[in-house]
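#onboarding

Welcome to the new folks! Below is a worked example of what a typical request in this channel looks like: someone posts a single protein sequence, and someone else replies with the predicted structure as tokens. Don't worry about understanding the tokens yet, we'll cover that in week two.

Example request:
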Amino acid sequence: MHKRTDVIYVYDGSLDGLLTAVFESFERRELPNVIISENEFIPSLFSSYVVVTDHQKADRVRRGVRKTAGEQAWNLVRLGYLTCIEDRGALVNDFVHMAMRYGGGVTRMLADETVNRLSKAVRALTEESHKYKGFVRFSVSDNTLSAVIEPKNSVLPLLAPHFCDRYPNESFLIYDKTHRQALIWHDRQRLIVTLEDFEQPKAGDDERYFRALWKHFYDTVAIEARYNPRCRMNFMPKRYWSQLPEMDEENTPELVRETKRLDEHCSA
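Example response:
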């Protein structure tokens, strides 16, 4: 392992930018204390080094990890980039240095702090993405589905295959409010773009009707004697509630009126 230094590497925020920073770390024979994206970088008294993204250098790191340590190690690198852990840049860099030294066995070195922390962060990422596959709620406007989520990790790349396969003939947008990114699926083309802000269109009559229908079902199947909010929060943590129509207390009166209209329609 190379010597730890106080220098800060600043990259453009992309995966190839991070992999280029890893390449530069090997080339400069040093382990930077911090590797951070330019959007998160705050000038300090420590010296900084601006990494210019080089796709060829990034590809050499990608192929090197796969060849030396295998796909499992590469997945830790690829997914580690998407995690919310603050020092993920330096953590990924340290892991790659270990992978190139120890080979495929590096993924089993869970007693090592670097491997352990990276593995835990990736596991938290995959668990969160799995939950969002069930927690995402779409609204319909002009034949387009839209949803807003507030994840801790950058889960859109993991959600994309699931929702694109599930709705192949639809057009939809999932906006990650935390990271200001949007997953767009249109004409069977998939794209993840930076989007500073997004406001869902106001719900139309049909959308309000189906929300009322869902709310009516939600309330009807509930068993009052078994009401257990703590158990409910175990299955659906409270931080997900803000984007769920069935948990939107602000719109409850409107949904109640829609439900009454639904009951009258069904009994007519």
